[in-house]
Each structure stands twice: as C-alpha cells, then as structure tokens.
Amino acid sequence: MVKRKSIQLSNVELSYLEWKKGTEPLLLLHGLVDHAVVWSNLGDYLAEDYHIIAPDLRGHGDSSKPKAGYKFTDYIDDLNELMDYLGWQSAHIVSHSWSAKLAAIWATQQPERFKDLVLIDPFFIDKMPGWFEITFPILYKTLPFLKVIGPFDSYEEAENIARGLKQYQGWTPLQQQVFKLGMEEKEAGKWGSKFIKQARDEIFEEVMKYAGLTQDINIPILFIKPEKGLNRTAWQLKPYKTYLKQLKIVEVPGNHWAFLVEPTPFNETVQAFLAQSN
C-alpha cells in the first residue's frame, strides 16, 4: 500500500513515503530526529480516503543532509516545492513537536496552503530568552529524542538505550522498525542516527529564536494534547488559544509520541477531525 519515493528539489533530495489509494491531499510532518516511518500506522489507517505524503525532512532519514540550511525558511521552501511537484494547491497538514512550530510559522505566512492543520504536542512555540542557549548542552544530553544520535560502539548498545526511551515505550514491531530505519553505521564501526548534529544545532537556534505564533491564524486547527505530553498547563496553551481562531483541543492517551505508543485513539482523533473538513 505504501511506497518509498524521492524527489530532487532545488537544494536537496527528499525521500518520502506515499499512500495513493485515496485522493484527498494529506501531508504528514515528523518531529526532530524522527523520519517518515513514524507515520506508518496513521498512513495505513487513513489510506482509503487520502493521498498521503510523509517526507523525511532535510537532515533526517534518507533525505539530503547539507552542511547548513536548517532554518524554518529552508523547510518551508522544501515543502512548497514538494506540494507544487504533487500539484497540490493546499492540503490537510499533520505536524508533530518541532514541525508543529514549523507548520504554525508556515500557516502564518501562507494560510492558503492549509485545508486544516493538526498540531501534535508542539515543542517550544514561544520565543525563548537569549540566555537559554547556554542550556543547550544539557538539553542535548537529556531530551529523549536526542539520546539516539550517538555515536555508539555498536547497534546493540544503541538499541539498549532506545528501549528505555519514551518514544519506544512498549517496543512494538513498529517502534522497532522506526528505530532501526533511523540508524546507520558510521566511521570506524560506530553507530548513530541518520539525523545529523549540524541540523540539530541550527534547528535548536531557530526554535529558541523565533515565536511560532505572532498573529491570528484563521483555519481549522486541532491541537492534540497527550496526557503525558509537553503541554500540560494553561500557561503553555495560552498562545494557541490567543492566536488560533478555529482551535479545537483534544486530549489523547500516551506521551509526546502518542502515535507510536497509543496509536488507536490517536488515529481515531485525527480521522474524526479531518472528516469534518472534507
């Protein structure tokens, strides 16, 4: 049902997964360090009704990894080119964590690209104070999604680390596949993530430097709030309630990676929201 394809854009080659049984355009954007395979369960679930594209964003997975070029503008340019290639003037767009902030910025600039938008537990939607940058080395060591970057002495060592991380809670066959396909052998027999540190450093600077919401966005938006996710307080939710004029907030079971640890209620929530806009 799903096929792996690639497209050469102006500056990078994007690898992506495509489900093409349905016709309604749906774009799935993974979070930091992840790759398109995290959407396998959701893609299969929605495939009957949607033409689904899930790219490995630049610096991730099997897509190009330039030495620089990981600003929000670079990713938005890639996605606009991808949609133009597909012949999509607009699409339903689902985004997770860092890419949810990316999508919010994109929607502020080009709302016409969005039929609607799903924000899954966005990561640092507000601008952060400049001094926060000194905490980056600590964040790099403690955030669960960065612990798989490596390097590790062996694949087995990397897998042992992964088994204890929140995104792989349960260690299901899909989670095992997501982890395996996100890793590669490095120089001198070391192992590490396909995601590169240059992308990590530039993306973190962008995430902290820019606010994801600065003006009203008047398109249908679903905020998926996992029970054990990042956004748990009224203070964290305030920017979304302020700027998103057609906002719906739904709580689902699971953690920041609800689509991997509790896929059934997550899939049903996304399906119900998208069906309202069709």
Write the layout of secondary structure elements.
Blueprint: E1 2-8, E2 13-19, E3 24-29, H1 40-46, E4 50-55, H2 72-86, E5 91-96, H3 98-109, E6 114-120, H4 136-142, H5 155-163, H6 173-181, E7 183-185, E8 191-193, H7 197-209, E9 217-228, H8 234-243, E10 244-255, H9 258-261, H10 263-277
Cα distance spanning the termini: 22 Å
Give Rg in angstroms: 18 Å
Total individual domains: 1
Helix share bin: 25-40%
Strand order of the largest sheet: 1-2-4-3-5-6-9-10
CATH architecture: 3-Layer(aba) Sandwich
CATH class: Alpha Beta
Please work out how many helical segments DSSP would assign: 10
User: Which regions contain 5 or more consecutive residues with pLDDT less than 50?
Assistant: none
Provide a brief overview of the structure.
With 278 residues, the chain is of the alpha/beta class. Helices cover 36% and strands 25% of the residues.
Structure report:
- By secondary structure, the protein is of the alpha/beta class.
- The chain has a single domain (2-277), classed as Alpha/Beta hydrolase fold, catalytic domain (Rossmann fold, 3-Layer(aba) Sandwich).
- Helices cover 36% and strands 25% of the residues.
- It is built from ten helices and ten strands.
- An eight-stranded mixed sheet has the order 1-2-4-3-5-6-9-10, sandwiched between helices. A two-stranded antiparallel sheet has the order 7-8.
- Strand 7 and strand 8 form a beta hairpin.
- The two termini are 22 Å apart.
